[in-house]
TrEMBL record:
Name of protein: FHS family L-fucose permease-like MFS transporter
Record field: transmembrane: 21-42, 54-78, 85-104, 110-132, 153-171, 204-224, 261-283, 289-307, 319-336, 342-363, 375-395, 407-424
Organism: Sodalis ligni
Domain of life: Bacteria
Signal peptide: none
Length: 446
């Protein structure tokens, strides 16, 4: 930590230590990579294990269910120790999860893969619970949302790496898996399925190497604590019961949680089924169809930059209301238009996902009294469980309507709620400015 960096009583710093911030931001692509590999696995497992759309979406349920269960324990580790300890625990658990792909690809059961994915998610839950809050704290309070948006901009880089690794290491050339399987005898089919499962291990070998390097860098770098100073004589840190009661009574906090739940669910549902949508509407094979995920993450990345720029000019709530209206219109196009352009619309929606997560996260955390920050941050991360629920619902709807395209209406409804949430936040912000016109110009800009 720089000798000229000073920590304020509320836990924020007077300035951002640059190397520490960059290294912290490097964690964001690491969970992006794991998350986008799930989109590859869903497509591979669907054919190899002959699953319904609903059952294939259970990959996301195992992954995001892990997040949900571990976020509160992770926040307790942060409270008892430090952000750095929680991050190093997360990296270690992530490595263990990747290693479990070795036995999984040999045992070749869907359940064993789900267990390995769940183990990875436990590690990522530690990483996200620590890194999201830490990124917003490691510097001046006024720039908390901007810092988190900058860190989050690294996420699609990781997501892109995951899809590219999956495209070349997991998916093969030639016909789609289902048409190849159709032409084989049962014995050949069995052997082919086993070979396809062996391939799912490949990307994780590379991930393990990267993770070990990052873990070592964290171990040797000094990090500021960024914890609010509590005067022990006057106030003890609030207990879990008191914290949860406080949060349960906080209406804006609860609305933020619902918005985050539906937003993350929708984002993951769209990405989970984009490859399948492309295959259904005429892409040649899985490797070709995975290109549309590459385009999606490029759009997501571009959308973040555009939003970061717009948010320095306009109020974040207004930017996000506009994004939501466009998002609903684009998803309506996916549902209604019966040709391949629907795939391009599904790709374009990713531009509009860019700023949602970080803005909902920082805005919701901002409604909470300082002393409850760690647990509140964990509960916002727990809202990621939306991604365990919404894709499964979308898969279920697809199985029942017999139309992957029409099932995108599930995501459309989620985006409509996100727009409604930001409209409420905008009104709230305007009421606050009316009540307190002395709030600085700086504040209305942020």
């Amino acid at each position: 930590m720089h000798h000229n960096t000073v920590q304020m009583p509320d836990g924020y710093l007077n300035k951002t230590p640059l190397f520490q911030f960059i290294l912290l931001s490097c964690l964001f692509p690491l969970w992006g990579c794991a998350a986008s590999l799930n989109d590859i696995l869903i497509t591979q497992f669907k054919t190899v294990f002959a699953l319904s759309d609903f059952a294939s979406a259970l990959v996301q349920s195992a992954f995001y269910g892990g997040y949900f269960l571990i976020a509160i324990p992770a926040s307790m580790v942060i409270r008892k120790t430090s952000y750095k300890v929680a991050i190093m625990s997360g990296l270690s658990l992530y490595i263990i999860g990747c290693v479990l792909f070795y036995p999984a690809s040999h045992m070749a059961t869907y359940t064993m893969f789900l267990a390995a994915i769940f183990a990875i998610a436990i590690g990522l839950s530690f990483l996200e619970t620590a890194a999201n809050t830490y990124s917003s704290m490691i510097g001046h309070r006024d720039y908390a949302t901007l810092r988190l948006n900058i860190s989050q901009t690294f996420y699609p880089v990781g997501a892109l790496m995951g899809i590219v690794l999956g495209k070349y290491l997991v998916f093969q050339q030639g016909d789609s898996l289902s048409s190849q399987l159709a032409a084989m005898t049962p014995e050949q089919g069995h052997q082919f399925r086993l070979n396809m499962l062996e391939l799912t291990l490949e990307p994780y070998k590379y991930l393990i190497m990267v993770l070990v390097v990052v873990l070592v860098l964290f171990a040797i770098t000094r990090y500021p604590r960024c914890k609010p100073v509590v005067d022990r004589q006057k106030t003890a840190a609030p207990g879990m019961g008191e914290t949860l009661r406080y949060l349960a009574g906080n209406a804006r906090f609860k609305k933020g949680i619902v918005a985050q739940f539906l937003y993350v669910g929708m984002q993951v549902a769209v990405w989970s089924f984009t490859i399948r949508l492309a295959l259904n509407l005429g892409a040649a094979n899985e490797r070709d169809a995975s290109n549309f995920m590459i385009y999606s993450f490029m759009c997501f990345f571009a959308g973040k930059f555009i939003a970061n720029f717009l948010m320095t000019r306009f109020m974040p709530q207004k930017v996000l209301i506009a994004y939501s209206i466009l998002g609903v219109a684009t998803l309506a196009y996916v549902v209604m238009v019966p040709n391949f352009t629907a795939v391009y619309a599904a790709v374009f929606v990713s531009v509009l996902f860019g700023p949602c997560w970080a803005t909902i996260y920082a805005g919701t955390l901002d409604t909470v009294d300082n002393k409850y920050t760690e647990v509140a941050g964990a509960i916002i991360v727990m809202a990621i469980v939306g991604a365990a629920v919404v894709p499964a619902i979308q898969g279920f709807v697809s199985d029942h309507l017999g139309s992957m395209k029409e099932a995108f209406s599930v995501s459309l409804l989620c985006f409509a709620y996100v727009g409604f949430y930001f409209w409420g936040e905008l009104r709230n912000h305007q009421h606050q400015l009316l009540a307190d016109p002395a709030r600085s110009v700086m504040d209305s800009k942020l």
